[in-house]
Amino acid sequence: MESPTPDSLAKDILQDALTMTLAVADEEGPWAAPVVFINPENYDICWISLPTTRHSLALAKSPRAAFSIVASDNTTAERALQISARVEKMDGPNLAWEQMLEGKRGLPLPQNAGDVLDKGYDWYRARPEAVYLTHLERYGFDRKRVV
Predict the structure, then answer these.
(1) Cα separation of 146 and 133, whole Å?
(2) For 47-68, what is the mean pLDDT?
(3) What CATH architecture applies to the domain 6-145?
(4) What's the rounded Cα separation, in Å, for the pair 123 and 4?
């Protein structure tokens, strides 16, 4: 049986984790916010947020962010990703993404595009520039660069 690659281990984390910590900086300093995310393809990360939140306002001024995604915080089997990325605010609804998001949350799937954007939420998409994997069982504290 083949050993899993760092790429496959990282993609497992993206599928297994529910939330991520989004970190930005603004004129008040650093800021971190937990958000539920989806991973529609490759290492892209998408989430919804109100454009008036502190992290959304910071991203409107500077589209760079960092993310921490932890799939297991068991002290002997930690599995996590650290990511730096460029972020863009997306235009309009996306039914496939909305269904992925609500499915991940364990909620009923929306039937119409825009159902989860009903209270003024917008989609944001991060395109990673660097992805680092922490997998204690496989690599100890030696992080592996995946992207």
Answers:
(1) 7
(2) 97
(3) Roll (2.30)
(4) 32
